[in-house]
Amino acid sequence: QVQLVESGGGFVQAGGSLRLSCSASGRTFSIRDMGWYRQAPGKEREFVEGISWSGGSTYSADSVKGRFTISRDNAKNTVYLQMNSLKPEDKAIYYCHLEAGGVEYWGKGTLVTVSS
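Below the sequence we write its predicted structure tokens.
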């Protein structure tokens, strides 16, 4: 089992920045990928950013390219999401996602609110 704990959500004005963190604990030796998804009110959950745990390759949704950056600290089993130039449409609950040993794990989510 793997446990995920997110932090860093909050309220920000449009154009501002936030940094989300997600720390993994438990059977972390088998982590393959970590990333972030988000779900806005009335919409389906969507992929935001992902990172390969071993090689560090990153993947971004078109909607956040150039504004969001994902990074990792393998020693701390932590992944970060730096969000710049936030827009009102970025408002959502952001979920940490991890794949380890062929199993997917999800955090409980952290709310990001962006005012116009």
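The first strand starts at residue 2 and ends at 7.
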